[in-house]
Amino acid sequence: MTDIELKSQFQKIEDKLNAAYETNDTEEISRLLSDDWSILEPSTGLSGKEQFLKAIKAGELTHTSMKKEICQVKLYNDFGVVISRGKNEGRYLDQPFDAEQWVTNIFIKNNSQWICVMTQEIPVKCQ
C-alpha cells in the first residue's frame, strides 16, 4: 500500500472518530476505542476510556468541532501509528477550549477493523 493510500484509509477512520467526538456520541466513540484506550494530553494528563466517556456523558467535556489532517502513517503488520495535526473546540468543566495540537493515535487491527488504543496530544506551539 502506498503512503497516499495509507493516509486515505486512516483519514476515513480519523474522520469517523472526529464525527463521533463532534456529536459527543459516547456509544460510537466507545466502539472506535479499545477497552484499555488511554489519552495523554497537557491539561488533564493521563486518563482512560472509562473516565473520558464518563466526562462526556456527564456534560463535563463537550466537543463542538474536531478536525485532523493526517501527516504520517507508519504501519507495522496489525499495528499503526498515525500522526496528524488537529484542531478541536468545545468546553471542559464549563470553560471553553480551542486547541491546535499534534495528535498521535496508535491503532491495532482487531477482526479486520482498526481500533484506537492510545492517543497523545501536544500543543502545536510547544514552549
The total strand number stands at 6
Main-sheet strand order equals 2-1-6-5-4-3
The overall pLDDT, averaged over residues, is 94
Instruction: Please work out how many helical segments DSSP would assign.
Output: 3
Task: Give the distance, in angstroms, between the N- and C-terminal Cα atoms.
Answer: 37 Å
CATH class: Alpha Beta
List the helices and strands and how they pair.
Layout: H1 3-22, H2 26-32, E1 33-41, E2 45-48, H3 49-57, E3 61-76, E4 79-92, E5 95-110, E6 113-123
Parallel strand pairs: 1-6
Antiparallel strand pairs: 1-2, 3-4, 4-5, 5-6
Kindly describe this structure:
- By secondary structure, this protein is α+β, with helices and mostly antiparallel strands.
- The chain has one domain: Nuclear Transport Factor 2, Chain: A, CATH 3.10.450.50.
- Helices cover 28% and strands 55% of the residues.
- The protein has three helices and six strands, in the order H-H-E-E-H-E-E-E-E.
- A six-stranded mixed sheet has the order 2-1-6-5-4-3.
- It is globular, with a radius of gyration of 14 Å.
- It starts with a helix and ends with a strand.
- The mean pLDDT is 94.
Keywords:
28% helix; alpha+beta
Task: Kindly summarize this structure in a few lines.
With 127 residues, the protein is α+β, with helices and mostly antiparallel strands. It is 28% helix and 55% strand.
